[in-house]
Specification:
Strand order of the largest sheet: 5-9-8-6-7
Low-confidence stretches: none
Oligomer: single chain
Largest sheet: 5 strands, antiparallel
Shape: elongated
Strand content: over 45%
Number of strands: 16
CATH topology of the largest domain: Virus Head Decoration Protein, Chain: A
CATH architecture of the largest domain: Beta Barrel
């Protein structure tokens, strides 16, 4: 049997990232847990990493069973929103009961250390020089795209824009752009004018 295990991961003792009450959620870098003791900032706090917990939530939200839940470390509360920017709020688990709007708490099954990060891929056929592509994710963190069709003068390049996931493009989507040379000896990219080209894409997010 291996002898180099330090401890189980269901609870961890870490320096409190801020003053935290017993039973409150706390985020330390990429670690989230529920405090098992009250602690001042910098003092040792034991964070539980598993099980179902009743946590302070954004009271203006309504949760359904199975909703993905995130931690808003600015307001120190659970939320069903991933945040205005991709990755702004840390994924922590899933709602286990309905929580109405307004209610101040909600029950959350912690993800046991999982990030909740998902990877999806697909193939799009261009319609315009800037197509909005839905990925099936709730929020896109990053995307890679490449021409499946052989490149030519039009189009020659492809790029993908994630944006802030809060407007253009809408959450869970990215903008697929195709480009061509200006022409002659000028290699400056300009929007493509030839479409129906196949583009492979790979995206990751929540």
């Amino acid at each position: 049997m291996a002898t180099n295990r330090i401890q189980k991961g269901d609870s961890l003792t870490v320096p409190a990232p801020y003053d935290v009450a017993s039973g409150a959620g706390a985020q330390v870098g990429g670690i989230f847990g529920v405090a098992q003791n009250a602690a001042l900032s910098g003092a040792d706090v034991v964070l539980a990493r598993e099980d179902v917990w009743e946590l302070k939530k954004n009271s203006a939200e309504a949760w359904a069973v199975g909703d993905r839940i995130y931690w808003d470390n600015t307001n120190k509360q659970a939320t069903s929103s991933p945040g205005a920017k991709p990755g702004a709020n840390m994924f922590i688990g899933w709602a286990t009961e309905v929580a109405a709007n307004p209610t101040s708490t909600g029950k959350v099954l912690l993800s046991e250390g999982g990030t909740g990060l998902r990877q999806v891929a697909g193939q799009a056929t261009t319609v315009t020089a800037a197509d909005t592509i839905a990925t099936g994710l709730s929020s896109v963190l990053g995307v890679i795209a490449s021409l499946d069709s052989d490149p030519g003068d039009d189009p020659e390049w492809v790029s993908a824009t994630v944006g802030d996931q809060n407007g253009a493009p809408v959450a869970g989507s990215f903008i697929l752009k195709t480009w061509k040379n200006t022409g002659g000896t000028d290699p400056t990219p300009v929007a493509a004018t030839t479409f129906s080209k196949k583009v492979n894409w790979f995206a990751w997010g929540y």
